Amino acid sequence: MEAHKTYFEVNKATWNKKVEVHAKSAMYDLEAFKQGKSSLMPYELKALGDVAGKTLLHLQCHFGQDTLSWSRAGAKCTGIDLSDEGIKLAKALNAELNLDAHFVCCNVFETSKHVHETFDVVFTSYGVIGWLPDLRPWAQMIFERLKPGGIFYMVEFHPIVWMFDYLEEPPKLKYGYMQDEVIYEEYEGTYADGESKMVSKEYGWNHGLGAVVSALAEAGLHITCLKEHDESPYNVLPDLEKTTSGMYVTKDKLYPLIFEIKATKP
Length: 266
Fold this sequence. Notes:
The protein is an alpha/beta fold. The chain is about 30% helix and about 30% strand.
């Protein structure tokens, strides 16, 4: 991954700035979280069920809200993130809430260099794989960190969503469903606070569902579930409409917004 070092450094700097903005945002609602509100969404809660007593590794955990929500649910959690500011806040929240989660700052590709134990569950969610240029070492790391019989679960924005340039009005179909070339975007604000004056500078990659499934399968994982949904729990795309269930949809529902994958290690 040495060839991508500059991209990772730029992304890390952006995410370090995002932490302060997101910690104050209505979307993350940190005060409600501190009072006991879970940050977990229906997809992941239904998929993983009761995690009490299980060990759980959370990849790309931002500032740890979901990690700590799983910890509140009884899991023994470790969270990984590229942003040292994110991990700093996660550790502070863990101490303030008197929880027992463990947090490590590292590139997700280097998780196995920093975390040596294996886990019952490896979890990752919402806006994660687009930061990774190659899913094969990511999938291999997941295999390494799972116990035999362990579960990998991810819920992620659908690759069709990332084909659009949302800096255009209306959004323009611009990027490939499968695109090896890096995508660079620079804009003011973040998905959690469009009014923020911070400048986000981001390098990302598009991965089709075939690439995701193949990387996991080739690493040795057994895919047990692949689902696509036209509803998102987050209102992070232009002109979404809220449903009676509290989810968000496009007006025409022509394509999925979210996918889920569950896999097991034999």
